[in-house]
Amino acid sequence: MKIKASKRLMLLFAASAAALSSALSCTVIDSGAAEDDEAVNHTSVSGTYPEISELHNGVNYCYYSLPGDSEYGEKDFSVVEFDLAKRDLYLDLEMAGQYAGEKATVTDIISKYNAANSGKKTAVAAINADRWMTEYCHARDKDIIYNGVAYEKNMKMPVCLPRGFNVSDGEIISSAYTEHETPYEGDSFTFGITDDYIPFLAQPGVNVSVRNENLSSVFTTDAVNRLPAADTIVIYTDKGCLNNYALDDAYEVVIDFDSDYKFQHGSEITGKVTGIYFPDTDDNPVMCENRIILTARGSIKTGEISEYSIGDEVTISVETYDRLGKYTEYVRHMRTGIGGQLPLVTDGKSCTEAVYDLTEARAASIIGYTETGSLMMVTLDSVISQSSSKNFKINQMPALCKELGLYNALLLNTGSPTTMVILDGNDYKLQCTPGKGSEYNITCAAILSYGPEREAQGTIPPVKNETEKLSALIFNSPEQLKYIGETNNTCAEYDTSENALIITSLTDDNPYIEIRYDTGYELLSADDYKYMVIIYKNPETNSEKAVKGTLYPCCGDIKYPENDKSLSILLPQGSKYRSSTVKLNELPYWNGTLTNIRFKFFDDSEEEDTVYIKSIILCRTEEERRQVIYEQLDGDIPGDLNGDGKVNSKDIIRLMKSISNGETNIIGGDLNGDTKIDSKDIIRLMKYISGQDVQLF
Q: Is the pTM of this model over 0.90?
């Protein structure tokens, strides 16, 4: 019996009604700070009783006012809590205007949102979303010195683009800032919602391929709707800025399309070149609907488009991914993406290292979700107090998020832009706006709304098991299919009769599976492991050419498979399960966090060629490798040709007799995996016994 893996292998169970009920009660988790009541003389969030009001069915607003003896000091903050399992709720990113470079208040953005969705959706609550590029450090129209380093201006006039990777209604508004446009920012994270309403926290990236059909030339852009910085090619869509104000050294190409396009993962759109703006011209092209502009600066980058001509046909292809390798499939199905400043909690762990030295007390906006998928929008400030002394220190925020029960939480912005607006009857009410009490103009807002009943939420991924050991993947149940990620021309199933994973080539064109190492509680470091042992059976009924495969490790700086960073693996055919060892430590790029490994199990095969996988185990030492093989093959030791449980000179003699007279009964004599038993196997066995680092099949 075979049990098929679903497309969303990681989504193993749905949030229960009980969990939803608990989430909407605004109950918080005890921080554990008061284990000894007599020794502690302060309270935490869990010791307070917030004011709770219902903004809409299933949407609760909580206002916390902490006393001076609390763990955090005298503080005020607000929380809007909801769950997208409720099918009339939506979470959207709304831009301030038609183009990304525009700004407006949260209240005005709500009005724009309600007008655009009149009769469909109505805003319930909103907070300020992503930061924007500051005039001084980023969108600079003059040279600056920042932290003692000189930076040249990068545009004629500042444009206030959002800094992070942002998605609205499935369309990419901006990719994350690049190192070319900003002196220092660190990594950019995005809080996302999939098209089936599952929340996640990732570090999205995008590859945009531009192909001139007339020239047969192809290149990849550096960014989407970012500042026109030096030595980059930036692609601007009709959701970007109206004018990028690129410097005079820019080479710009205008591409127009016959119909509206949507710039998202999987998009492939074709248009014609309608304008070319050469360097040292005064004008910059202006954006309009159904247009794309390519802006290149620097001799290498301008060279990519300098041969373009009016009338050329250009095809643009879009591919998104998660830079961390964890949530690529989620990123590719992202409906809403809200860029932010830095993570506060990831997978249930406080990001204390990232914020340890950040002791500034700041107003702040935060978004996150609990283990069961309940979402919270949080603003750390209030219109009631308007007192900066009540602001949280940034290094206090992870603990607060943990206490609120957030499993993943992202700091969106800090300071004056912090704003929360909630629906109060038929009107909207400011619940948080720092400074002088008036709203700040921002580029975008996260808006919670209600509307017509939509499709049901997908299943929420399980919380990672602390005891789960991803270094040893044993495929002994259908549950282990969760370790299989993306597949190509392959059917991945669990075979109950073999008690093993069975993978079948559906065509002879590049069949592979991806083995996911990002699903465990603790991520693995490639530096800790020397070998990979695969216990497999390659049936003799397969085509003769199906005996060799390729592995593509993704670890460290390698976020997705690369052809020049791979290694071959031999999978000789036979009726029994065998072991194949891969020496990973010999790879110069085998380091850093291990996220996934693409396993192209057959480099050359035919349709319906099949291989069974019992286990895939990472080993630190040679001794551990041999022990793993012994245990996984039920005492069947490679090289033990006489069956005495040892590999020694007696096995060499037995192999020599078998080769010389062809009569001595021998099983497992093909020790080098070339499907033959000859003198090469004797040499391999002698090397192994002498202690050389060789593999026995």
A: no
